[in-house]
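User: Glycoside hydrolase, Didymosphaeria variabile:
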Amino acid sequence: MAAKPEKLDPVWDDLDRTMGQLFMMGFDGTSITPHIKTLIEKHHLGSILLTAKNLKSAEETTKLCYELQRIAHDAGHPVPLAIGIDQENGGVNSLYDEIYVRQYPSSMGMAAAGSIELAYEVAKATAQEISACGINWIFGPCLDVLTNARNQPLGVRTAGDDPQEVSAYGVAFMRGYKDAGIVTLGKHFPSYGNLEFLGSTLDVPIITESLEQLSLSALIPFREAIQQGLDSMMVGGCAMSSAGLNAMHACLSEQVVDDLLRKQMNFDGVVVSECLEMDALSHNIGVGGGTVMAVNAGCDIVLLCRSFSFQQEALKGLKTGIENAMISKARVYHSLRRVLNMKSKCTSWEKALNPPGIGLLENLQPSHTALSTRAYNGSISVVRDKNRLLPLSNILENEEELLLLTPLVKPLAASAASRQLSESANTNSPEPAAWAQSSSVMSGERVFRELGRSLARQRNGRVLHTSYTSNGVRPVHENLINRASAIVIITADANRNLYQNGFTKHVSMICNMQYTTGGEKREKPLIVVAVSSPYDFAMDSSIGTYICTYDFTETALNSLVKVLYGEISPTGNLPGTISKSQKLHSSRQHWLVEIYNEERDANALDSLITAVMEGTPPNQRSELSSATSNSFILHDKEVEETHFVVRNSSTSALYGFCSTYFFKSTGTGVIGALFVDPGRRKLSIGHSLHNRAIRTLLQRDGIKRFQLGSRLPSIFLGIPTGHTTERKRLRSWFANLGWNAALSRSVCNMVARNLQAWSPPEGMAKSLASAGAQFDIVYGWDYASPILDHIKTSNRQGLAEVYKIALSDPSACGILRAKRPEDGALVGTVVLYDHRSALYEFIPPLKDLKEAAGGISSPVISPGVGEYSTLLQGLVLLGMRQIKKLGGNACLLDYMDGDGNFDGFSAMGFEVLHNFEEVSCDAATWTMIPPS
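Assistant: Predicted structure for Glycoside hydrolase:
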């Protein structure tokens, strides 16, 4: 039995006052006008939408919001106004202030940055800034899934084409907004991600997907946001035409609002209609009739953006509908309760009449500026750099010229160029007369002019800059291309502005046909930068170097310049499932990959390790046996480590983990572990983790080679090969990702047991004596210099790091040495360690022995020494004796060459514990990331 609705204050018995709460309206002007004053005082308007045309600056916005609330208060409104704006960041910001309001990346830009936490921080900062000005309702998050990504006007306003990713970022944005004290609005239900446009503005864009298709993709983010507490929802004005679901306008359809949104998806927040002033809707139905239909469909607030005559028509339509019993009072009061409940979450008269304003914004400015820079720096995505053109300083000499080619486009609303354009139009600006005739062209020039200046400031050589239009490649372009030593082309939605696509392809062809003065063909360096939709050339591999910025605000372009000149390493990744071919394989999903956070994820990683071990067949050994979350974290200043997870943000469970290490001493980038929850395999989690790992390693400064398998930490030495079927499967899996397993090197761990009853093989001591070397053991940094010089004769990954750990821990580690008697020069070394050493945590096989044991690690024998095997056996023998002497009963030889002759070690009592295939490749040959 439904609960009886709470009794309303008698003030709401006044029906006109109640009806006012069911409308949201806008107006023209940056200060109070008779138009808006009348709506608030005479018609009891309860919500106001402010747009960029209303907002001059943070200070003026604060004043305007205060004055609007003061008018409502003095007019006797029982509750404050809900004041809402679109503040999506990127190119869609209603409030712009160069000093006090920071610019942040678009939703897709934030998804490219790849951090849910960062998305939350940005959303919270955005909401704090607009809240300081008196705004209490943000029209966000945008929850649309771009199921037809390449031709949709939404572009970067949504996180992408993957419903899980859109959900994750949508909920993060929503939490950030809420935690800053303002209420949220999801849009554009049921989805603007795959609209079909028929041409005329009087034609309604149509959703043709069936309800079942929508449920499998487009509705997922909306459903998740509802479950996480979304405050309000905007229902679009699009048409719907599919089996069992027909509506001329979604927001006027009871099928869409009451049935689908309310009953099937259990949404009980405030529903806001699309603006009824949109041409298709007002011409097809009329604003008065549309208002009645919207309320009857289940909308709680009807939106009318700016026309006073339309707004009056809507007010009259609602009143007539109630008087004629076309709308029940129960429906009206049900909506009122929802609106009042929403307002109670975000405002009160105390708050509404005391906006913090500039004082708070000044305090927020330093941290928000740093956050903006961090977000933009993290979002820039280098999709391809086949010929290693980045950074530009590597390919351009000071005397050489760089050419920048930019399209003529309108500036983004949230840019200084847009503000200057607006101000020049509102004053007697001395700008040329061309502004009045062709403001979009001139403003496009201004947007990218500053980019050219920024590029020029960063280098000693000259930067040439000119624009291009639908007229294509002109002689002036050809002359500049021939003159320049490298070219940067900017595109902005080239899929919808096809002249940009054609121009870029033409320039690419010219660059491919360049010749040196000696007549040799030499490809001229070309970099293409998509500054809006990343889909421009995402799938066109003929564009060898391709970068995406996701918007072209000044802050985004500043970060682009830093990437082009190598001041920052780009870490952004294309969000969603860019490739059409990926979508042909239903099992190939694109998972959200996040950076491992030790504090947040350590316990979950331990649980994942346990799950993997428990999921290992009885006849196989799990390499993770005895490993813990600590086993992967080196905390070594000489090693850059970044680890990745696929996680459930709601339960905090990890579905997959990948560790990466960059050893600066050898320029080696290593994937040290990659494993997935056994219950979630074959869902592409491993693909997503691997591709993120490779992208990250590619960006390391000084990267020379990649390696699959790590000496330190010594968990996975490579592809495990202990079981024939599993070995074939893993070799095939990694081969499909771009690794050449045919060039692998066999490595293994070996173990000798029962040391207390062991004695060296007969005759071995005499054999070792014939090697002509002296053996000893030393401890600590006093002996470091010759040892560290000696190990430089090997370029194996992790050697230096293992030896430095051992030298720093003399109580638990020693260095076994072989020296030439005549001059004392080192010809061989190994590391000896036991369970007290820091190495113990990073070598789980030693823990696996479950008894008193010691380890011998990282042998280095000088090249050219004839008695290689004899010297190595001598060092190992000395180590075994030392471990036995200290009470150990087992000895582990870790990371041994698996192709060697094991007869000598077998005679000493060793057996192979586990085999691996270490795979390496030259980083310069890894020209593209395999599809995930």
